[in-house]
Amino acid sequence: MASNYEKLGVEGEKQEELLPPLSPISQCLNSSTIPLTILAVFEFEVPVQESHCLEFLEYHFVPCTPRFSSVIDTDSKGVERWRKIEQVIYQDHLIVPTFPEELSATEYDELCKQYMSKIGTEKFLGTRPLWELHLIKYPTLSGASTMVLKLSHAIGDGYSYISVLFSAFHRADNPSVPLTFPPLSFGSKGGKPKLWSLVSKLKETLFDVYWSYKMLMFEDPRSAVRSGTRQLGSKPFNIASITIPLEQVKEVKSKVGGTVNDVVTGLISYVIHLYMVRMGKVSSDGDMTLLVMVNMRALKGYKSIEDMMKASSWGNYSRFLHIPIPRNGRGGEEADPIEFVLKSKEIMEKKKRSLVIYLIDPLLNTIRTIKGQKGLAGFIRSNFYNSSAMITSLIGPKEKLAMVNQPIGSFYFLVTRVPQSLTFTVATTMGDLKLVVTMEKGFIDSEVFTSCMNEAFKNIYKAACGKNMEK
User: Which N-terminal stretch is annotated as signal sequence (predicted)?
Assistant: First the structure.
């Protein structure tokens, strides 16, 4: 598509403003080594038109941060910096695909997912700000129309983009009232640590340091969910999702005495178990590792998303922890679903005692000092590639969203160009928990995996609560 940016020519460069340099992590995420992309998907209850999207971009989205009106340049000293441009050409960022006419919602749903796979593996043009808005004007199984915001991860992390939801969208029931978010669960607990507590912290920290070293030097074995293909970030993928009422997740949480994260991690490990059993590829050889994305803002003790937004903490504060995926080599289909949740709870409690999260940034800084920026990007990529799967999550608003008075029925996100066969994203918003998975196309059987996802939480809920899920 021809770009109107080229028409600005030299005159468009006179008013450009030089902004701060990219952080080391943002430089990694803008490199060819690990160029992660975020797709934020909004499924509308009504047909949305181009005029709605252009109004949203000009008056609500782009004003959220100067980075939406900036490109990345390298200055005379070789430093990558944000460079604010004089004018954003909104029409160049709005893309409206054309599908065949008069198909069913099921067919359009599949075409929509194929389209997201296509744009999710494509590079951004470096001559314009690193975001796009794709409007799919066809009814799918989940909405009358679909809007996909494609965003470079170099701009910011998930909590940065939550601030976009906070300021660019509004409540569907009352636009004049601000959106509200659930309280954050992270933050340190007070009190003086006891001797046994210190010993336990040291033990878990040493174990995590060992596991991190192991993941740097060795990769997980190839399995039914890990092909080990080197070019995974550019390969097409299938998408599947399940939506679970958040109240039912909290019921399971209460029964096992854990957290929502414990339940979700147990659910993922149980889904993987069911899939491997059904594919006849259960193996006890070697460990399987889940790369869990965590946010370093947790160390600052924010009590709410609103506090985080007031701190203007834009940027990339996401880091990763290695979590052994709970395994159950016995029982096959009959394995106890709750066992996976309980094992996940045990693992996550150990992680909370570990101090390894405080060592992540010093480690990354040391690697950058010794091996340079390329070495840091390679280290981050190897952590993704060597793991079997990844999970990242976001906390969204409690109320139903709207964009320029167009009501949104559901919201989820994907992280693409990840060098893994299997990735999970979790969004808790509008009273639901949405678990979305991307699967390497042609390697993971998406129909079998989707059926495992549909069954897994039902089995966990029945085993924990003694009743079937309500429809």
Answer: none
Angstrom distances, CA of residue 179 to CA of 167, 174, 228, 379, 400 = 9, 9, 42, 38, 9
User: What's the pTM value of the predicted model, to 2 decimals?
Assistant: 0.90
- Order the strands of the 401-403 sheet from edge to edge: 94-95, 131-136, 145-152, 37-44, 406-416, 401-403, 170-171
More confident residue, 242 or 197: 242
Q: How far is the C-alpha of 61 from the C-alpha of 70, rounded, in Å?
A: 13
Bridge partners, 33 (sequence order): none
* Band of pLDDT at residue 11, cut at 50, 70 and 90: very low
All residues at 6 or more sequence positions from 99 whose CB lies less than 8 Å from its CB, including other chains:
108, 111, 136, 138
Domains and CATH numbers, the chain: 14-171 (3.30.559.10), 195-391+421-465 (3.30.559)
Residue-wise pLDDT tens digits, 250-294? 999 999 999 999 999 999 999 999 999 999 887 666 789 999 998
Other C-beta atoms within 10 Å of 234: how many?
A: 12
Size of the chain in residues: 471
| Cβ-based neighbour number of residue 300 at 10 Å | 15
Show the DSSP H helices in 218-256 as ranges: 246-256
Rounded Cα gap, residues 11 and 265, in angstroms: 53
CA distance 266 to 340: 5
DSSP 21: E
Contact 72, 446 (CB under 8 A): no
DSSP-derived pairing of the beta strands 318-324 and 289-295: antiparallel
